[in-house]
Design brief:
By secondary structure, this protein is of the alpha+beta class. The protein has three domains: 49 residues, Helicase, Ruva Protein, domain 3 (Orthogonal Bundle), CATH 1.10.8.10; 91 residues, Elongation factor Ts, dimerisation domain (Tetrahydropterin Synthase, Chain A, 2-Layer Sandwich); 38 residues. The strands form two sheets. It has a three-stranded antiparallel β-sheet with strand order 1-2-5. A hairpin with a 5-residue loop joins strand 1 and strand 2. Helix 1 crosses helix 2 and helix 2 crosses helix 3. The chain starts with a helix and ends with a strand.
Amino acid sequence: MNKELLEKIKILREKTGAPIGKCKEALEKSDGDLEKAEIYLREKGESLLEKKKETKTNQGVISAYVHYNGKVASLVELRCETDFVSQNEEFKKLAYEIAIQVAALKPLFVSIEAIPQEIIENKRKEFLVGLEDKPEEVKETVFKGKFEKWVKEVCLLEQPYIKNESLTIRDLINEYVNKFGEKIEIGRFIRLALNE
């Protein structure tokens, strides 16, 4: 292995926490481009999750965040496959970061799949007010654009991560999936705010 590749592996490992072998593979697949390698690792995390779709996540942690003023708090249940991972400090830190996200950005749902159909239909009506005379394809385009924007506000997994807006919470979790090699998912969350 040449010195330049070793240096890039080190940088990629520090950024993503992925194992050395996966960092080397990502750099080889992306012709040594660090940004592309990072994207490759993120996508690998998604494909690992896809393969493990049916895998049970019976372990995990519940993490709490209380804002310094004591007026906002959140609880997040972050689930994984093994007790080994659930006791890992990095996994606990991820749960805490997600709890901060919940307190700060007030998501309503974990994912788009968790949004009840009734709410989606109500949003369709709301977003299309005043467009009754427009062609169906125009209505669909308008709805799709407004709905995608709304989903990024209310679905935790689709929200930009507050500490690095180039990542969504889904991307952040995928980085840890790569790191630990097992399924990680958000079980439940709750946000409490005084007088809200």
